[in-house]
Amino acid sequence: MPNALKLNNIDFERLFFPKSIGIIGVSPDMRGGTFFIRCMRGKFKGPIYLFNPKLAGQELYGYKIYSSILDIEEPIDYVILAIPARLC
Predict the structure, then answer these.
(1) CA end-to-end span of the chain, whole Å?
(2) Which residue ranges make up each domain of the chain?
(3) Please, which residues bridge with residue 22 across strands?
(4) Beta strand 78-81 with 59-60: parallel, antiparallel or unpaired?
(5) C-alpha span between 35 and 32 (Å, rounded)
(6) Where would I find the H helices in the chain?
(7) Contacts (Cβ under 8 Å, ≥6 apart) of 67
(8) Domain CoA-binding, which positions (predicted)?
């Protein structure tokens, strides 16, 4: 199968051991905030970037909330979408 995906060529390092995390749709409520709180409680050592255009410029537990993922120049290894399915 020439077009078949070759799993031995995929680097899963960034998926299973991310150095940075982005959360799109973060909010202080349980829906958007749960992933963020779990990352903090899990003692994730890398940077955590928060995104929500409605809350841009504010902070959540001392972390700045950005409007867009394009506002970050550094690479983000793992991104979590914490938004309602109807917005995808």
Answers:
(1) 33
(2) 14-83
(3) 49, 79
(4) unpaired
(5) 7
(6) 13-16, 30-41
(7) 51, 52, 53, 56, 57
(8) 15-88
CATH superfamily of 14-83: NAD(P)-binding Rossmann-like Domain (3.40.50.720)
Is 22:76 a contact under the CB 8 Å cutoff? Answer: yes
Give the residue carrying structure tokens 């410029």.
57
Query: How far is 39 from 34, CA to CA, in rounded Å?
Result: 9
Separation of alpha carbons 8 and 11, rounded Å:
8
Please list the pLDDT of the chain residue by residue as tens digits (88 residues): 555 566 666 778 888 999 999 999 988 876 667 777 777 777 788 999 999 999 999 999 899 999 999 999 999 999 988 887 787 7
